[in-house]
Automatic annotation (TrEMBL):
InterPro entries: S74_ICA, Secre_tail, WH-like_DNA-bd_sf. This is T9SS type A sorting domain-containing protein. Residues 1-22 form the signal peptide. It comes from the Bacteria. Residues 268-366 form the Peptidase S74 domain. Keywords: Coiled coil, Signal. Residues 352-379 form a coiled coil. The keyword Lipid biosynthesis does not apply. The keyword Coiled coil applies. NCBIfam families: Por_Secre_tail (TIGR04183). The lineage of its organism: Bacteria, Pseudomonadati, Bacteroidota, Chitinophagia, Chitinophagales.
């Protein structure tokens, strides 16, 4: 009985296999309709050649090539050295190619960089019509929190975010430093001659070729020039042609450096000025200035070069127009004082003019004194008269000649009635002064004109003595 059952099962199995072979021929099949190929139970379908597995479809529908355990819908694993795992062609031309180095080539059969990507044409993200090698369309406005169109770097660390008109450096959501061309070379902004391009710092609306806006106005802001090379090398700010270099403030021209001579010239046109008044008493104030030699606090060596100049605090009460308070220390102390040294050229001109006026006046006085001395020498005392009255003495006035005041000393007897008379060159009485027991009288040049006079001591109606005096103004 058992043998009959086994024989029956064998016949059924053989018949089933023959039926299967009848349905699926190795050299092709003519099917009357859709047919299934695969497994009806919980097993994978394996494809082999040369008794070696080449691929399989798992019981969950995952396809694996080169792997017995695919974990994706299609899982390709190249295990043979030099074997490229994947290639897609259109009309015989490779369009998608993965080589054995892990690189991917798109649009070409060129060997891509290992574990990298090579794209033969334009790549578009957010656009089906890329206009260049990488064309990104769409995204958010770049900010410290929005990620724009492109992010380079980890979001939680240092990164750069880019949108269609901004580049922002960030560090985990905070502002960071954006460095351009760190290792040298030229950094060119608007390398063409197209007019209208402007560069702005701290402003969204630059008004000139370069617009720099201070954020707080202190000395730590603005433009810093630092020499990172050998000591002694200086910064150059220059015009590339012989044209002048202009400086302006709020659109108004304030200074020029001549393109040929290098002379610094502030504007001085009368049309730019108002409230014009002359300077006076400059010489007197110049004499109060105290030039100094000094070191600056930033000089460490004791034998460092000394500078010469003035101290702003000393100049301020004398020439306040030359001293300025420079705001921007930002340390809670008073502002530093600075000086416009160029103003001292104007002061020197006025001081020289005032000094020349003094010199001219003195020269005129000297000339008059010389003439008067000649006149005195010519008389040789001939105009001096003395009647040798007892107890009467008349001395020569001192100083003589004089321009301010002079003193005439004399002696007269007690109780005498005396006076001193001043006569002009024609003998006319100019002035009469009572002579008292004090023994002297003082004459003021303001009461007389320049010239030569005689003066006489009259005692009790008698001319006791006569001498000559000279007034010079």
């Amino acid at each position: 009985m058992k043998k009959q059952i086994l024989f029956t099962l064998f016949c059924l199995l053989l018949f089933g296999n023959m039926q299967l072979l009848a349905q699926w021929a190795i050299n092709g099949n003519n099917l009357p309709g859709n047919r299934s190929f695969g497994s009806n139970n919980n097993f994978s379908v394996i494809f082999e050649t040369l008794n070696t597995e080449r691929g399989r479809m798992t019981n969950t529908g995952l396809w694996g090539f080169g792997t017995p355990a695919p974990n994706s819908l299609v899982h390709i694993n190249s295990t043979v050295a030099g074997q490229n795992p994947f290639r897609v062609q259109v009309n015989g031309a490779s369009k998608l190619y993965v080589d054995n180095g892990g690189g991917v080539s798109i649009g070409s059969s060129s060997i891509p960089p290992a574990n990298g990507l090579f794209v033969a044409g334009n790549a578009g993200i957010g656009t089906t019509a890329p206009a260049t090698k990488l064309h990104v369309v769409g995204g958010s406005d770049a900010s410290l929190t929005n990620n724009g169109f492109i992010v380079s770097g980890p979001i939680s660390g240092f990164n750069v975010v880019i949108d269609d008109n901004e580049i922002i450096a960030r560090n985990n959501g905070a502002a960071s430093t954006l460095t351009l061309n760190n290792n040298g070379g030229n950094l060119i902004f608007n390398g063409t001659t197209v007019a209208g391009a402007k560069f702005g710092v701290n402003t969204p609306s630059p008004v000139s070729d370069i617009s720099l806006v201070h954020t707080n106005g202190f000395i730590s802001n603005g433009i810093t020039l630092k020499n990172s090379f050998a000591a002694g090398l200086s910064w150059n700010i220059y015009s590339a042609t012989t044209d002048d270099l202009w400086f302006s403030n709020d659109g108004s021209h304030v200074a020029t450096i001549d393109g040929t001579s290098g002379a610094y010239t502030p504007p001085s046109d009368r049309r730019l000025k108002k409230d014009i008044v002359p300077m006076d008493n400059v010489m007197e104030r110049v004499m109060k200035l105290s030039p100094k030699l000094y070191h600056f606090n930033t000089q460490s060596a004791s034998n460092a070069r000394k500078y010469m100049g003035l101290i702003a605090q000393e100049v301020q009460p004398i020439f306040p127009e030359a001293v300025y308070a420079q705001s921007g220390k930002n340390d809670g102390t008073d502002d530093y004082l600075s000086m416009d040294y160029s103003i001292f050229g104007v002061i020197a001109v006025k001081a020289i003019q005032e000094q020349q006026e003094i010199i001219t006046t003195l020269e005129q006085r000297v000339a008059k004194l010389e003439e008067a001395l000649k006149a005195v020498a010519g008389t040789n005392g001939k105009n001096d008269v003395s009647n040798n009255l007892a107890g009467v003495v008349l001395k020569q006035n001192n100083p003589n000649p004089f321009s301010s005041t002079t003193t005439i000393q004399y002696a007269i007897p007690a109780g005498a009635n005396a006076q001193i008379n001043i006569y002009g060159t024609g003998g006319n009485l100019i002035k009469s002064v009572k002579a008292t027991s004090s023994g002297q009288v003082q004459l003021n040049a303001a009461e007389l004109r320049s010239g030569t006079y005689t003066y006489s001591l009259i005692v009790n109606g008698v001319t006791a003595a006569t001498k000559q005096l000279i007034v010079v103004k």
